[in-house]
């Protein structure tokens, strides 16, 4: 299964702009909220290409933080869910969940 690669730009306002050729969306790194951008909104001269990104699935703990050191990222959501089920079997409060994340390849 081939994964979608997104071109990643940084805007003048400091947002990350993901573009996959069909549409774009911005992520505010401080609030972690997605802001939809019109499909017709063109890139400006001030938007700088910084690399590419690919969507992956990560495991988050009770503090909503991705466990980057303990576990790998998964390209398939089903694999991540399976890992969470196994991790939660021994946990009392089931603190682990699956969350979509992005791996960046900087240029």
Describe this structure in words.
This protein is mainly beta. The protein has one domain. The protein has one helix at residues 77-89, and strands at 5-10, 16-19, 24-28, 33-37, 48-60, 97-106. The protein has a six-stranded antiparallel β-sheet, covered by helices on one side. The mean pLDDT is 76.
Short synopsis of the structure:
The protein has one domain.
Throw out a few tags for this protein.
107 residues; 6 strands; 40% strand; mainly beta; 1 helix; 6-stranded antiparallel sheet; 12% helix
- Biggest beta sheet summary: 6 strands, antiparallel
Number of domains: 1
Percentage of β-strand residues: 35-45%
In whole angstroms, how far apart are the ends? Answer: 25 Å
Question: What best-fitting shape do the alpha-carbon axes yield?
Answer: elongated
Query: What portion of residues is helical?
Result: 10-25%
Layout of strands and helices, then pairs:
Layout: E1 5-10, E2 16-19, E3 24-28, E4 33-37, E5 48-60, H1 77-89, E6 97-106
Antiparallel strand pairs: 1-2, 1-5, 2-3, 3-4, 5-6
């Amino acid at each position: 299964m081939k994964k979608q690669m997104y071109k990643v730009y940084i805007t003048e306002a400091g947002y990350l702009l993901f573009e996959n050729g069909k549409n774009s969306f911005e992520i505010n790194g401080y609030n972690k909220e997605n802001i939809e951008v019109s499909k017709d909104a063109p890139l400006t001269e001030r938007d700088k290409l910084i690399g590419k990104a690919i969507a992956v699935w990560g495991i988050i703990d009770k503090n909503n933080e991705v466990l980057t050191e303990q576990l790998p990222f998964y390209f398939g959501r089903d694999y991540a869910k399976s890992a969470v089920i196994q991790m939660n079997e021994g946990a009392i409060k089931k603190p682990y969940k699956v969350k979509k994340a992005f791996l960046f390849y900087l240029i």
